[in-house]
Amino acid sequence: MKRCKRMMGIFLAMLFVFIQMGAVVGNANWPAFSDGLAIVSQYDRYGYINQNGDRKLALRFDYAYDFSEGLAAVKVDDKWGYINTAGNYVAKPQFDWASDFSEGLAAVEVNGKWGYIGQNGYYVVPPQFDWAYDFSEGLATVEVNGKCGYIGQNGYYVVLPQFDCAYAFSEGLALVEVGGKYGYINQSGYYEVEPWLDDGYDFSEGLACVQVGDKWGYMSRYGYFEVHPQFDWAYDFSGGLAVVEVNGKCGYIGQNGYYVVPPQFDWASDFSEGLARVEVGGKYGYINQSGYYVAEPQFDYALDFSDGRAAVMVNDKWGYINQHGYYVWEPYWDYASDFYSGLAVVYHGDFSGVINSDGTCICEEQSEYSEFLVTDDGYILYYHDGWKYLVDRNGNILSGGYDMIGEY
User: Is the pTM here over 0.70, yes or no?
Assistant: First the structure.
């Protein structure tokens, strides 16, 4: 399915950028726990621990996924099933592949065909599709004989397979591709925008970024241009503003299409906590939503603001500034992550550790074979000499000696 290839390309490009910038070193960008449990593995056997670090479900699975809507897909002897948080099977291992639950249903594969089961483990939609995706806004994309359509949660077609590509619904509309052109359909399957666009993205804040020829603009859900195609590149709206690029320079527009900040930057990010990173001449700074600098471009690299602070790099050393552009901690570390739940990871030589918002080091290690990650839900994952440990925000080890904890 073309959709998969396109999305995989985007994912790989993003992953490459994250790795290049070090963004995967100090923060996990995902929670350790889901429905109160975290996956752990030891010697290729998988189970789950609770938030106290206690072993809740024994290491008895060949593989396991995070819990989603109270259920988790687990693998035993090359077959997938689902368990609840008590460890009881709601669907015994019988599927060739299994996905997370979404809106009460999960896509499963049997003998090369996909269907959906409910949370009781029984089929709601028997396997019949060549491919099946998660439900979004009550509908799911399915593929049959190279064409895509949409089904409702009862398994009946709402939109018959007819598209070369079909994306998830967002704000009541879905992007579809026919013959290399893109359009948008509503949840009844009728075109709101006929497929004549050269490219397009999901609706965000009531507008979709679309391409006509080699220019980008923004379209309303009724098929009218709110902002006519005029930009060399354009991004989704976030917080009422969108980054656009003209002649190699980036600026920001409002939803009326007028410039809030005229194009002047070599690169620009979305706003985070009211401030955005911008690059000028290889140096990074920060602007507010009026376009005024709170920190002139002076840093060799910089991260987004989170928890009121931003990590910045000068001469290969990292420090933190506040939202007024003043240093909270002068550049000292070899690497510093952004803050998550009041915690950040820092590295200096062989030293690695986690600091809180006061700059106090709550856990540290003097070893080149150690590293820390901070999860979205405020836990610390600690790697040392080949083993991984779960640490709370006070620096106490809750559990450890695993090959994997969560997705780490």
Answer: yes
